[in-house]
Amino acid sequence: MSSILFENVRLIDPASGRDGKGSLLVEKGRIAALDPKDAPKAARIVDGKGAVLCPGLVDMRASFGEPGAEYRESIDSGIQAAVAGGITSLALLPDTEPAIDNPALVHYIRRRGEETGLVSIYPYGALTKGCAGTDMAEIGLLKKAGAIGFTDGARAIADTKQMRNLLAYSGFLDTVIVLHPEDPSLAKGGCATASPQAVKMGLPQIPACAEAMMIARDLRLAELTGARIHFGHVSTGEALGLIADAKKRGIRVTCDTAPPYFAMTEADIGDFRTYAKLSPPLRLEADRQAVLAGLADGTIDAIASDHSPADADDKRLPFAQARAGGTGLVTLLGVTLQAGLPLLEALRLLTVAPARLLGLEAGTLAVGAPADLCLFDPEEEWTVTAGSLPGRAQNTPFDGRNLKGRVLRTFRQGREVFTAKGLPA
Q1: C-alpha distances in Å from residue 358, one per residue of 213, 248, 311
Q2: How far apart are CA 44 and CA 296, in angstroms?
Q3: How would DSSP label each residue in 283-322?
Q4: Of 31, 119, 197, 295, which one is least surrounded by beta carbons within 10 A?
């Protein structure tokens, strides 16, 4: 594998706090030196022209359709979207068809990722068999097979006693449990957050408190069992208040959010825009502001894409019947850069923070680390256009949105896996 010397770049490494001009040398797929005095004569030179060079993004929450629903998004199509978004490490949810609830499927997902050579894929294991919320999956065997954590994806576990048992057992394995924070009975049949707009549109509603109620329950169970829990796509101010308080009390809890919850509100469902039908649903402006505050004060530990693919038939239905979910891989960086955070902090939430939560060797520019890199122009503007995005799924809630921050090149283990159109390969 040839050497690569990145010159004339703004090096940003959230793990060390570095942010400044410099150069970086890659040899044998790993970072060999920062600001090297000498480089191999045969090294390939990449002139960054002042662009940002940072660790490849680490997405800790995404779904593909494979296995079972490849027509929505296969692994091959999904990783094309991932690398176009600067993502080099991807954690996949297990609520596929069949669910990732046995070691053979964990091995299958990891092998498929390696076969592509483009992205490192880390599968979660199902917390319950079939992600059905009842019988515990063989989480010990799944962890041994390579599952990085356990979750039922976008399905909450309603049975409180079973949730206690799951958390108690997970404590023996010292593994993270990722939870969908939504009371199933309150959310059943709903498709929009409870609000005057939902009433006006005649849409079945989900009270915002459904999120806080489930989080309150699971925090109490985590305190009881000592388990390590992580809440995905937190979207309400009340829930964030509970999490912040729990952290102060020493409960082992972390959480993430996704770009729609700090960049959009329920007003964006507009004229029954099914691309903006998400789970959890888009919230009120006060909740959006609370999520922004949670990002700024550290209550929220990471930002995930929450990529949830759908095909045209999934979305070309009345709003209440349409499939919930939106794509998020390509837009993850661009939308995050609009959140008003310092660039170093925004990138921390997308790189080293999720990597540390999952125990991955990723998200840093340290010498010796894998050369998973993202080169991007934070000032270049582009327009999100459904139908022309990389990947099979095009159901982006940000369709038509102008973003600032374009990925120019993505490298995995020193090999270039994405180049923006108009740039030399």
Answers
A1: 26, 22, 30
A2: 39
A3: --HHHHHHHHHHHHHTSS-EE---B----HHHHSS-TTTS
A4: 197
Using CA atoms, how far residue 423 sits from 46, 118, 379, in Å, is 12, 19, 17
What radius of gyration do the chain's Cα atoms show? Answer: 21
Is residue 53 within 8 Å of 12, Cβ to Cβ? yes
18 Cβ contact partners less than 8 Å away, ≥ 6 residues apart: 11, 12, 34, 365
Rounded distance, CA 108 to CA 103, Å? 9
Task: Give dist(CA 201, CA 349) in Å, integer.
Answer: 35
pLDDT digits (tens, 9 = 90+) for 250-290: 999 999 999 999 999 999 998 899 999 999 999 999 999 99
Cα separations (Å) of 285 from 4, 169, 183, 195, 236?
46, 39, 22, 11, 10
Q: Amino acid identity of 18?
A: R
Q: Rounded to 5 degrees, what are φ and ψ at 382?
A: -155, 160
- The catalytic residues are 306
State how far the Cα of 416 lies from the Cα of 152, in Å rounded to an integer. 34
Work out whether strand 302-303 and strand 253-257 pair parallel, antiparallel, or are unpaired: parallel
Between the alpha carbon of residue 10 and those of residues 39, 47, 48, 217, the distances in Å are 19, 11, 8, 45
